[in-house]
Amino acid sequence: MGSVTSVFIRKVVAALDDPALATDLLRALDLDPDGAPDVDRMVSASDYYVMLERIAHGIPDATGFPLRVGASMRCDDYGAFGLAWKTAPTLRGSFLRAERYGRLLTSVALYELRPVADGALFLLHRDGERRLGLRLSNEATLASILSIIAQIVTTPVAPRAVFLRHQAPADVTAHTAYFGVEVTFGSAHDGFLFSDADLARPNRLGDPAISQYLSQQLDAQITQRAPDSGFGEVLLRRISDRLSDGAPRATDIAREMGMGERTLRRRLADEGETYQDVLRRARQRLAEGLLLTSDHGLAEIAFLTGFSEQSAFTRAFKGWTGKTPAAYRVQHRS
Q: Mind listing the pLDDT tens digit for each residue in 184-221?
């Protein structure tokens, strides 16, 4: 099922008021209760979700617990990944590093910085059944992102919107208080919406030279762990950046990436995908984001997602989601 860094587990148990339970939970996952946090020590994601569910069923404030866990996260807990995050020159740069290197912390989630009108969505993609443990993990992750942002930027940054795919708990007071905005539950995404102005804010310790050096170290770690993994996601982001100029050709994208088209298609085939698969995903993700967070008309969204005609965009979108773009916008905005 995949794995997550044991740092997450230690932060969760540290937020408990019951030391005996914390020790029991760590030992059940074969972690030394007195050991130092190790970002490279991984734990089964399934076991992590089970642990969260056990905690939720045994404490009085299960609703607010993942928010407290997220608030306790520190950038320095994540080793070189955390250093690369906080030394990026701007908040946008930090998000791009999370997008690129987040799989060093977990193999069951991906981050994506998706451009939309006047800003970008910073999304958490985590596949799997929407069981309680996964939902709690998603909430803790978003809470931790907001906590880390506050630690690294020079001036306060607040999201314009917060989205969670699962349904709202009975009481959302704690969520509104923590995130500073009303959370949209039952959304199409898990993530945040930030303005371009906030994404351009400088980081307190931003240093392009140090950031580049750390990025090289993290690139080496990724290559060592899985030389060919995640190529489809890298390609998807490149395609997304070019859709407003029309659907890019595989030949042109391959040339930009310093490889031949045949190599590009082979690497995708190794992951069970085709270029058309990735192009479709890029168009669908961007279209959904624009419909959800912008006031662009359908004709303009069609153009921004690489279609020459609105009618072709509408047919394609209905094929992807089963709904017309207009119906999708009405449903999710309501």
A: 999 888 999 999 999 999 999 988 888 778 777 787 77
Q: From residue 171, give the alpha-carbon distance in Å to each of 23, 96, 168, 184.
A: 30, 33, 8, 13
Q: Which residue has the tokens 């709904």?
A: 323
Residue range 228-239, pLDDT digits in tens: 346 787 788 778
**188 and 260 inside one domain:** no
What average pLDDT does the chain have? 87
Cβ atoms within 10 Å of 198's Cβ, excluding its own: 22
- Residue 2 inside a domain? The answer is no
Parent domain of 195? 62-199
Residue 137, token pair as written in the block: 């993990």
CB-based contact 113:95 (threshold 8 Å): yes
The gap between the terminal CA atoms of the chain, to the nearest Å, is 34
Q: Could you tell me the CA-to-CA distances from 285 to 3, 92, 244, 289 in Å, in that order?
A: 25, 19, 14, 6
**Distance of alpha carbon 47 from alpha carbon 235, whole angstroms:** 32
Total domains in the chain come to: 2
Per-residue pLDDT tens digits for 38-93: 888 888 888 999 999 999 998 888 889 999 999 999 988 888 888 888 999 999 99
pLDDT, tens only, 314-331: 999 999 989 999 998 888
92 vs 101: CA distance, rounded Å: 14
Give exposure, 79-98, as e/b (b: 16+ Cβ within 10 Å): bbbbbbbbbbebbbbbbbbb
